[in-house]
């Protein structure tokens, strides 16, 4: 399980939902997602596959969907994630076996997230 999947598990998705989402994102049909999400996915995929091919139209699409400040957040997050992946791959760093984000788990109550005051003890995870 990769870090993104670990975060989805912490957000409350079960293994089947995570696998379904991974399949949808890896595929070519993103029609079930919001247009702004699709713009971010296209940018992320293009940057991952051929970063030198990023053009002003790609950036403009993000600015059109997210506005200036949020578009910069999206660009930064995608770039930082790709950078960390390339560093980890270059040094052949293995992923952790345990979900390193589990201490940040939130409980869902009536459709809302309720933050825990403290991480759950290791024996209860």
How would you characterize this protein structure?
- The chain has 125 residues and is mainly alpha-helical.
- It has two domains: 1-32 and 95-125, no CATH class; 34-94.
- The protein is 56% helix and 5% strand.
- The protein is built from four helices and two strands.
- A two-stranded antiparallel sheet has the order 1-2.
- A hairpin with a 2-residue loop joins strand 1 and strand 2.
- Helix 3 (35-49) crosses helix 4.
- The two termini are 16 Å apart.
- The model is unreliable at 109-125 (pLDDT under 50).
Beta fraction of the residues? Answer: under 5%
* Approximate helicity band: 55-70%
Secondary structural class: mainly alpha
The biggest beta sheet reads: 2 strands, antiparallel
Stretches where pLDDT is under 50 for at least 5 consecutive residues are 109-125
Give the count of structural domains.
2
Query: Going across the major beta sheet, what is the strand order?
Result: 1-2
The total beta strand count reads 2
Overall geometry comes to globular
What is the distance, rounded to the nearest whole angstrom, between the alpha carbons of the first and last residues? 16 Å
On the 0-100 scale, what is the average pLDDT?
84
Q: Which H/E pattern describes the elements?
A: HHHHEE
In DSSP terms (H or I, runs of 4 or more residues), the helix count works out at: 4
Q: Give Rg in angstroms.
A: 17 Å
């Amino acid at each position: 399980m990769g870090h993104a999947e670990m975060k989805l598990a912490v957000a409350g998705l079960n293994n089947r939902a995570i696998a379904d989402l991974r399949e949808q994102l890896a595929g070519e049909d993103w029609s079930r997602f919001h247009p702004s999400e699709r713009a971010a996915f296209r940018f992320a995929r293009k940057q991952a596959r051929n970063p030198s091919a990023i053009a002003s139209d790609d950036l403009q699409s993000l600015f059109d969907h997210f506005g200036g400040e949020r578009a910069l957040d999206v660009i930064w997050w995608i770039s930082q994630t790709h950078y960390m992946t390339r560093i980890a791959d270059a040094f052949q760093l293995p992923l952790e076996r345990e979900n390193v984000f589990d201490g940040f788990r939130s409980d869902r109550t009536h459709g809302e997230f309720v933050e825990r005051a403290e991480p759950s003890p290791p024996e209860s995870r």
